[in-house]
C-alpha cells in the first residue's frame, strides 16, 4: 500500500502541474486505486496536494501523503498519456512494479526540443498575423518577435525569475520588436503588435479553472482563474508600456 500510495501521489502531482482539470485527475487516480482494491481520497491545490489510500474492506488501514506540486509547463501529452495509463492499469490489472515503470517512462520520455517548440510557436504567430490581415512585413516581424521573446521567456524561467514578471518582460520585448513595423509599413503595424503577444495568453489554465469551478472544485478552480488573470494582466501591462512608448514617439 505504501508503495502504491507514493506513486499515486506523484502521479496526481504531475497531472496537476500539467494543467489537467481536477475531475479528470480524480477519476484517473481513483481508477488506479480501485484496480488494486483500494479507495482513494484527494485534496488538491496548485501548490500542494494530499492523498489518502484506504483498504476497501478496512478503512483503518490507510496510507497518507502530503506532496508539493512540481513546477512544470502545461503538457497535453502528459495529460493524455497518464489518463490512458490509468485505463491500462484498470483493464489489465498490471503489477504495481509495471505501473511504476510505465509511469516513470511517461514522465521521463523525451519531449520536443526547445528549438523545435520555439520555431513552431513563431510559425503559429506568423500564421495568426496572416489571419488577422497582416502583410508580409508584419508577419516577418511577428515571427522574429515570437522567436526572440520565447527564448527570453525560457531563459528567465530557468533563472527562477517570478513568473508574472517573466510574462511582463516577454510581452514588452515581443511587442517592442513588433512595433518596428511602424517604421517599415505602418498599415498593418497594429496587427503585428497585437498578434506578437497572443502566444502568451494562458488559455489552457483559464479553461481548466472554469471546468474545475463548474464541477465543484472551487478552491483549485478559483486559484487557477486568479493565476491566469494575473498572467493576463502582466501580459497586458507589457503591451501597454510598448503602446505608451510608441505614443510618445509620435507626439
Radius of gyration: 22 Å
Largest sheet: 3 strands, antiparallel
Count of strand segments: 3
Percent of residues in helices: 55-70%
Helix vs. strand class: mainly alpha
Q: How are the strands ordered across the major sheet?
A: 1-2-3
Q: What is the chains' assembly state?
A: single chain
The number of helices is 11
Number of domains: 2
DSSP strand content: 5-15%
SSE string = HHEEEHHHHHHHHH
Low-confidence segments, given as residue ranges, are none
Q: State the end-to-end CA separation.
A: 70 Å
Which term fits the overall shape? elongated
Averaged pLDDT, please?
88
Could you please describe the fold and organization of this structure?
This protein is mainly α and 251 residues long. The protein folds into 2 domains: 2-108, no CATH class; 114-249, no CATH class. It contains 11 helices and 3 strands; from the N terminus they run H-H-E-E-E-H-H-H-H-H-H-H-H-H. It has helices at residues 2-17, 22-35, 76-92, 96-108, 114-131, 136-158, 163-178, 181-184, 189-195, 203-214, 218-249, and strands at residues 38-44, 48-55, 62-68. It has a 3-stranded antiparallel beta sheet with strand order 1-2-3, with helices on one face. A hairpin with a 3-residue loop joins strand 1 (38-44) and strand 2. Helix 1 (2-17) packs antiparallel against helix 2 (22-35), helix 3 packs antiparallel against helix 4 (96-108) and helix 10 packs antiparallel against helix 11. The protein is elongated.
